[in-house]
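Changelog excerpt

This revision adds worked examples to the README so contributors can see how folded entries look when concatenated. The first example is reproduced verbatim below.
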Amino acid sequence: MLAKPINSYRPYWAKRFGPAPMLPMSRTEMDALGWDSCDIILISGDAYIDHPSFGMALVGRLLEAQGFRVGIIAQPDWQNASAFKVLGKPNLYFGVTAGNMDSMVNRYTADRKIRSDDAYTPDAAANRRPDRAVLVYSQRCREAYSDVPLVIGSIEASLRRIAHYDYWSDKVRRSILVDSKADILLYGNAERALIELSHRLAKGEKVADIQDVRGTAFLRKRIPEGWSEIESTKLDRPGVVDKPVDPYEMKLGKADASCATESPTPASEQGNAVATIALPVSRKPKADRSKQVVRLPAYEEVSQNPVMYAHASRVLHLEANPGNARALVQRHADREVWLNPPPIPLTTKEMDYVYDMPYARKPHPAYKDAKIPAWEMIRFSVNIMRGCFGGCTFCSITEHEGRIIQSRSEASILKEVEEIRDKVEGFTGVISDLGGPTANMYRIACKSESIEKSCRKLSCVYPGICENLQTDHTALIQLYRKARAIKGVKKILIGSGVRYDLAVKSPEYVKELVQHHVGGYLKIAPEHSEENVLSKMMKPGMEAYDAFKAMFEKFSAEAGKKQYLIPYFIAAHPGTTDDDMLNLALWLKKYDFKLDQVQTFTPTPMAMATAMYHSGKNPLRKVTTDSENVPIPKAGNVRKLHKAFIRYHDPNNWPMLREALKKMGREDLIGSGKQCLIPAWQPLSNKPVTTVRGEQLERTVRPRRMAEGKRKYS
């Protein structure tokens, strides 16, 4: 997979202005930099923080390094177009994003209730971005300057590049390209596409003519000449599937002179002799995959037929490997949404180039002393890699960043640690995290580049770790040791994101992690205890958790430390029944876990679990009308019940749980016995008390009850 290095382009003429202390957000700042205009203006739903963990800053600094003058309009007032004119008319294009998060996930809870705060806004103020921010911002950009090219990207646009189920309206919506009227969409990690697009526009090419860049999507009227079209239903046919004829099969037939075997047949068997007859094989010339496009079912079809929606989702995910993916096309009325194959992953040298930009590593001065929670959380952390080959069906990381791990060099990472020490105000010697989408996939890859290019597996670690995946953690161990040896660094913490089924393949890594990089608690995510639910998540069974837990406790004891694992679980995931949640609650009680934080499944666009939620089918296998039906906890009361099972210790949940247990015929679990899940009595009031019990920092209550006219306390 060869691609032009992103740092090999000839810089645009405006490179002479040099890097800005902060990318400008006002005409005053532009004047101070000597700019009469911006070449590119980025619109974002987040506050502007000049740090590589924030997409707007990363993209802005990358374009600046290419020589372009980049302005930023952060969290504009979307009620009219005037806020989109504050920096004037861009010379090349508007780049529109919703921010680091999907705006709907950012603004609404899993129960579709509006959140009271926004971590990406100064002082966590709510309502600073609109619903479906990319659509709204795009409309205002068109109103401001109708002739300026409109480029959309970020996770919100990326995950809506084809027809997608929208949880908040409970319907299948059109591709965001159609609704936003954007000229082009950049999906996934878009550095490569963004740089090529920008330079080609700067040279005078029309945006409508740029249709050959990987990692882009756009609208066209028809399939261009020279392309062969393949119906997705022929690749992965929904419906009854006949056993295919194998042209290489060797059939048995009556022997004849032309097919006599070399070994003579005994005379006693010659009357019924059989011989091997080779079937003739007609071979077709190998197709040019670079000129093949897979046609997904049209929007009009997937919006009405959930089975076809699940089928389209499955094919999209199977065509996600940059090494073998083909272009995709999906009709929307009289227009075609065309998706070029995914971008080629960045090399280590290119990753270093992206992260070694002159970031100020702080919020824009316009915010003064306001606290921005997202910044406070990551200000002392370092991103060492991107991508995830886990393939969890409920997660959007794989869909957005891809399955191929892209790692920075050790030198680049250590340099950033030193920059935090020297530049970030308030640094006390503790690096809060050294990781990425996962903590321990740094420099882990397929053993064979050719196998990696041809692979279509949805996960490298499910149902088990692939035999072609090298699981050596040596590079990460060495990085940890060198990072914590830096002068002025007291502690390097790894707080979450450990893929524990991968970690147990390297006991040395687990020992290094547990004895040097855990600050008392380590968060891990088994997500559930029941195999039938885990299979819909593509998560490992609890035996992997048990193995990691044993190592964790062993190495903690060797270091003389009392440390705890904090597991995360998901309620109401597709495939989950009430019995599954009850079994999870009993597992939690068995190990004395009382969890405060519970995640209820939220169907996000393009996730495979969302296809399950909408269709009731399992897209991890070939989807047919009579294929596996997946139980879906959709009703509000069911989702609340599933969450209540995880928080079985909360007295507020006991009435609901009692009713459910009676309906399930499990009244034996109601009472005061050790085997019981919840008591038969209800407290009069709840007074929160923070304690530590077992393996979990919990919030407990002292419940009060009335019995036989006498007040008793439990």
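The second example, added in the same revision:
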Amino acid sequence: MTQATPPVAGYLDRPSRRPGERFTAHVSLRQPAPCRVRILRVVSGDPNPDGPGLDLRPVPGLPEMQFDGTHQPVPIGSHALIPHGPRFGAEEPRCWSVLVWMRDEQTAATVLSAEGPGFSLVLRAGTAGAEAEVTLGGTSCPLATEVGLAPRAWHRLWLSHDPATGRILLGQRGAEGAVTAEAALPGGPAPDVTGVVIAARGLDAPRDHFTGKLEAPMATAAFLTDWAEPLAIPAEAAAAIRARWDFSRAIGTDRVEDAGPDGLHGVLVNAPTQAVVGAHWSGAESCWRHAPGDYAAIHFHADDLEDCRWAPSFQFDVPQGMASGCYAFHIVTETGEDWLPFYVLPPLGQATAQVVFLASTFTYQAYANHARGNADEAYWARVAAWGAYPHNPDQYGAYGYSTYNRHPDGSGVALSSRLRPVLTMRPGFLTFNDARGSGLRHYPADTHLLAWLEAQGIAFDVVTDEDLDDEGAALIAPYRVLLTGTHPEYHTGRMLDALTTYRDNGGKLVYLGGNGFYWRIARDPARPHLIEVRRAEGGIRAWDAEPSEYYHQLDGQLGGLWRRNRRPPQQLVGVGFSAQGLFEGTHFRCLPAAQAPEHGWIMDGVPEVFGDSGLSGGGAAGFELDRADIRLGTPPNAAILARSGPPPASFVTVPEELLSHVNTVTGERPRDLQRGEIVYFTVPGGGAVFSVGSITFCGSLWNGTAFAGPVSRLLGNVVRGFLAGRP
């Protein structure tokens, strides 16, 4: 799969490091050229001229770096690579077979290939039928069944070859019956098979990737002319098996295990989707851990990408004393430039400030390269006028897509890697052509908070989701105040445990977003660059997982909403997702609790109505809203200080709140659940939580000319109050 790429693009080995540790950068150029690199501190990533503007500051004392940039191809597409082929006698008959399932109509692509010097065998499948080609000594013999394979149905394909006679037979069998096609090559000895590729062809540079499920690839020393039972192995084949790759044996890893006599194990490349319903699924179990044989298939995709595998371009050793914060490597050539964001943590076990910002890197990764299809002429006109980041995933598919996109067959993208260029995680990247603001989300939107902290003179350290998942509560324990970003949506159980421990042991947790703590994700310690989400029942979803494919392959746990896993966001931060609309917002209005004397330190100087403007959708209460609900875990002592105004007409109530088209889980009207709420509460042990219940809140820290006004005043009261020891 060859696709266009930006002039310069790169990625890092890890998004964060501490002083004394090393970053390794991997960069590719369209055309080789010398490159210069300087390090910038990212204060503001908003290019809107009516906002703070792009504020990327050179770091004094750090010299410019140089390297010779080269073009590095992207090896996109998942497959299994078996580095050693099965052993056959030179004139021994052999049969290769595999079970095939396709979700939708597609053209033929390779499901299995076997190769050796002077020899290749390729078995292909598409909804128009099966194809095969055997090449021996420079002579090729193509075959085709010319009978369609039905979508969403399992078929057995097999290819028999008898070197002694030169006879070749291609067969397919499904519910509609069997069909075969025959041809012949000159008889004579066949060379050894030196390697096998499953779901692609080519040992050195795999290509022609298949999109669909495969199960039970096998090689046997028999010439089979029929396969009476698609799911069973004929007796003559079972007695002479040379290799039988069982995908149920190592689910969740990148290993492929051979149950045959020679142990011809292999590896999975580019993280295809495992733990999927296979041909032998009984319906008795919905969790693959309980019946792995029911899940002995792998869903391969032509656009899977786990790791670009680019050679290192340059390295940077974080110097001792470098301040914790948000930075970027700015790479410049004669033909283009790129920015690779990174974070510097404080030294291990130390805090250099009392406030810590938790960068939502797992959420950034879940949305990595989200192609929305909205980069129209008006969008590009704004990008040009503002000098915004000039590339968008709508243009470039070479680096894979986000968990909000679908694969070529319509199946959802469940796995996302950070070992690839992420165009959406760049200073100045515009998500929307926002009529009332800047149109930022995720990484650049969170810089509204960073720029506000800078303007307020509030010192802060930075840690990331990945650091918190790796290190737990000890990472954040030294801080008096923890600030989230605008959309901390994706979390592991370890992260929720760490944040709960922090809160319950005196920490002050400030949740500054909406739709947070929503989806459960999985990670594999052996491949920490990957995250997985299964969009199981419930929630606003860009796609829905296939029935009985709700359990993660990486950790074996039930995916979906944390609410469905009995850990609603209300239990941690008092509010949870309730409504969503277009990227537009409205104001907040104070409720009676805001007038209570015990909350005077929070609401001091804040008017009854506030947040009716801002850089995100034009209002502090917008896009995705969270509300309190005692039944879901909001503490009884929680004070609802303010509530969003009437929502714009585009807003809907999230599905998990609805029982029918008129009934909701609370008994309220669906429209009444379309609200965001600002909540404050304390917990035993001295901890406290302040939650704003809206994704667009931080965009309203800017009042049109500066970081000032009611929303800025409110957050300043909270942060400074917590720092001063307020309960």
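Reviewer comment on example two: The two ends are 57 Å apart (CA to CA). Residues 79-300 form a domain with the Jelly Rolls fold (CATH 2.60.120.200).
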